[in-house]
Write a structure and sequence with these properties.
about 210 residues, about 15% strand, single chain
């Protein structure tokens, strides 16, 4: 039976995921688990170019949209087939990574504004591959809101799982602290190993959570 209010608050959306991550950062500090701490900090502050990004931040849903001319007709904000891009560019589009911190993810979900990436540098390629029929004035990759909802859901689920693990091992977490004094070094290592399985930070190409 769940006793910790923080777990109930997350499950019932009484606190933001950002706030829950901040609390977990404090709660888990005593464990001295670098992988867990790094994951929390990356989710809070955003992933850098040197970071190993979890798979749930790589699976973007998107559309390509352009404004310009189709033959002699002016079109505005119309979808464009990826077939006009080279295979290499299609791969770049499909492997787009969302690195922003969780607060930006949460704000993006609430916002009416779209998240787009400017692709106008590819306008010449589109023109060539369409035989000059499509001439782009504006060209962009539009990231679907479902991408950000999926990221938020993945982090939230992982948070609940981690907190449930900690509660099982150490009892109530409502004081934002855990007492490790009654655990042997081997027992703490086992706890940390289990927690590490929940977070991906070992550099392998496949997720471990």
């Amino acid at each position: 039976m769940t006793r910790s209010q923080i777990i109930k608050d997350i499950a019932q959306d009484n606190i933001t995921v950002e706030n829950a991550l901040q609390r977990l950062l404090v709660i888990s500090y005593t464990l001295n688990n670098p992988k867990l701490q790094q994951w929390i900090e990356n989710e809070l502050n955003g992933y850098t170019s040197d970071s190993i990004v979890p798979d749930y931040r790589k699976k973007v849903t998107y559309m390509i949209r352009y404004t310009g001319f189709n033959a002699n007709n002016l079109v505005t904000r119309q979808p464009l087939s990826e077939s006009y891009f080279s295979n290499e560019l299609q791969e770049v589009l499909k492997t787009r990574v969302i690195k922003e911190g969780i607060n930006i993810i949460e704000d993006t979900i609430k916002s009416e504004n779209e998240v787009t990436f400017n692709l106008i540098d590819c306008a010449g390629i589109i023109s060539n591959n369409s035989g000059g029929m499509i001439r782009c004035i504006r060209l962009e990759q539009v990231i679907s809101k479902t991408t950000f909802l999926r990221i938020l859901s993945s982090v939230k689920t992982k948070l609940i799982q981690l907190l449930l693990d900690l509660e099982r091992e150490f009892g109530s977490l409502d004081n934002l602290d855990i007492d490790t004094s009654n655990k042997s070094e081997d027992e703490l290592n086992k706890v940390n190993d289990e927690i590490a399985k929940r977070v991906y930070f070992d550099g392998r190409s496949e997720a471990v959570f």
